[in-house]
Amino acid sequence: MAEPQWRPLGLADAPEMAALLAVCEAADGTGGAGADAADVRETLRAPGMDLAGGTTSGWLGSDLVAYATTRAREHADPVHRVTLDIAVHPAHRARRTLRALLDWCRSASARHHQGLYGESLLELHTRTHHGQAWLAEALDAAGHRRERTYWGMRLDLKEHRPLGSAPVPSGALIVPFDDAYDALLLRARNEIFADNWGSVPMTARTWRHSVTGSRYFRPDSSFLLLPEQRREILCYLLCTEIADTGSDRDRELYLANAGTQPALHGKGLYRAVFTHTLNRAQAQGYRWAVLDVDSTNPMAAGGFYDRMGLRRFRTWTAHVLHCTPPPRPSSPG
Questions:
Q1: How many whole angstroms separate alpha carbon 309 and alpha carbon 69?
Q2: Tens digits of per-residue pLDDT, 259-296?
Q3: 301: number of Cβ within 10 Å
Q4: Which of 59, 110, 163, 289 is the most buried (most CB within 10 A)?
Q5: Distance CA 279, CA 138 (A)
Q6: 0.90 exceeded by the pTM?
Q7: How far apart are CA 288 and CA 330, in angstroms?
Q8: How far, in Å, CA of 320 to CA of 187, rounded?
């Protein structure tokens, strides 16, 4: 079999990347909604992405058969985390190709890391779906550890009876997201997740690009719990929808970002926002409510989502490589 020719990715490669992702999703059964070229370009423009030094792609003539990207987090306190994204056509998943891609990711991440963060610790983070055994096994062989499991859970809103509204604490109110709260919400998010595994503070640029400025964000289906003076965020649940997939009767609302001020845990705030969001989703015509949650999360481990009627339908695994910087990267080929 001919060997691919390797080069960095560019924005003009977005259509070929979207086509490769569609083939991979169909083969692996990941249930992805199908990223289009516009989605891919947005990903390539994301903060922390370096197309020239942090991406590589393998081509057979005009056919893209594999790629890898490394996206650096914006902070390194005390650990600098780099997120890997790897796609390989099912016909080209030879062990040597996968190992070469992972070696390239490690050395490319190290070069970027050395230039910015010197002697701080470097970690490479990757997630695999339960249908991606080929990638999970390659990560195992390359020394990446399986450190977290995430459950994908969903609720059929068509079949489920409307949830009774949970009581809102006295002096508080639930409101839909508004841009006027965006800076306040980002500050709350960074405070809430300051000690969470794998989390780092988000900058306004990354927050806007990845969350409230995304074309899939649904402000009318996202809700905040505020005190009467509306000067802080007590609890929130932000939702997205992958548009242009499926029929209207199968619309899926993804419960993407949620948080409660740590001092207020156990007081029913999240239950109030959660039930309000699901009831609104039913009224808005959504068929499914979907979320992914860390299996060690107290709400998941304690059975909250099961009691709310959600059922598991997929599993994600977080893989981490704790590494020291190797030499300058070379082409996987």
A1: 37
A2: 999 999 989 999 999 999 999 999 999 999 999 999 99
A3: 12
A4: 289
A5: 42
A6: no
A7: 45
A8: 27
